Amino acid sequence: MTGAVENGRRMFDYWLTVYKRTWKGTMISSFLLPMLYLAAMGIGLGSFVDSNGTGALGGVSYLQFIAPGLLASTAMQIAVGEATYPVMSGLKWQKFYHSMIATPLRPADVVYGQLGFIAFRVFTSCAVFLVIITLFGGLKSPLGVLGLPVALLLGMAVAGPIAAYATVLDNDSGFAMVFRFGVVPAFLFSGAFFPVSQLPDWIEWLAYVSPLWHAVDLSRSLSLGTVNPLLALGNIVYLLAWFLVGTRLAVRGFTRKLIG
Q1: Entry pTM
Q2: How far apart are CA 252 and CA 107, in angstroms?
Q3: I need a surface site. Which of 29, 134, 206, 259 has the fewest CB within 10 A?
Q4: HEC states along 174-187?
Q5: 223, 147 in Cβ contact below 8 A?
Q6: How far is CA 85 from CA 71, 82, 165, 173, in A?
Q7: pLDDT tens across 16-46, in order?
Q8: Residue 81 and residue 64: Cα distance in Å, rounded?
Q9: How far apart are CA 31 and CA 220, in angstroms?
Q10: Which Pfam families does the protein's record reference (predicted)?
Q11: Cα separations in angstroms, 208 against 72, 155, 197
């Protein structure tokens, strides 16, 4: 166990060194775009929504309603971005994963290091975004700061399965399906911008399958101070299941690709 932790730490150090050279290229997707969404939807559109009353949103402002959803959505998008093309690059194009396992590192160590770096990216980006949300008045309850670990859990719940999916692709065309039929619909229809109860029944149930909905529901209940312990536990267990199963599949996929 100690050796696995040490190997994973070394992998994380590698990715952190790479990120120190490339972090400026992530500023727009990680920080600027979420801020623009918050300003345009929460403040711009929110002023029109609030002027017609907030009864449909439980008596909270539209900014306070969507802020937790935008936090969770940011975590999902960062995790998917880091688990698609970078993983494909390491396996197929630049093949730096192959060099890594020529050392004492195992495929599992490579996966843990990659996921550790994704966790770092999700945590730091969402921490900055959470500060901005707080400054804008988007948190109604101090419990809203717990939306940060929820966002981190969501990022891990998404990153594992996506990394596993990347190992079975022959080229990057499959990523278009992930974004077109996974990320975008989840972003729009997982309760970030409106209650999913307003959707047709068959779409509403599809929303509940999405890990994003569970993260949005949990983050919003924390932010608004309306936490139901049983529902919150269900959300956490669901996200943990995605993370554990996804990580196991990723380790299996990396092992098959790198060792055969």
Answers
A1: 0.89
A2: 8
A3: 259
A4: HHHHHHHHHHHHHH
A5: yes
A6: 23, 7, 11, 11
A7: 777 777 766 666 666 677 777 777 776 666 6
A8: 27
A9: 20
A10: ABC2_membrane
A11: 15, 17, 10
- Amino acid code (one letter) for 32: L
Average pLDDT over residues 130-155: 92
Count of H-run helices and E-run strands, the chain: 14, 0
CA distance linking residue 35 with residue 37, whole number of Å = 5
Using the CB atoms, write b or e for 100-138: b if 16+ within 10 Å. Answer: bbeeebbbbbbbbbbbbbbbbbbbbbbeebbebbeebeb
Query: Angle at the Cα of 256 (from 254 to 260), degrees rounded to 5?
Result: 135
Mean pLDDT of 187-194: 88
Average pLDDT, stretch 134-146? 90
**Spatial distance between the Cα atoms of 122 and 75, rounded to a whole number of angstroms:** 5
Single-letter amino acid, residue 109? D
Residue type, position 168, single letter: V
Please count the CA atoms within 13 angstroms of the CA of 245 that sit on its side-chain side.
Answer: 9
Task: Identify which of 29, 68, 39, 44 has the alpha carbon closest to the alpha carbon of residue 179.
Answer: 29
Q: Write down the pLDDT at residue 52.
A: 64
How long a stretch of residues is the chain? Answer: 260
Kindly state the average pLDDT of the residues 71-89.
94
Written as six digits, the tokens of 202 are: 């068959």
Q: How many CB atoms lie within 10 A of CB 224?
A: 20
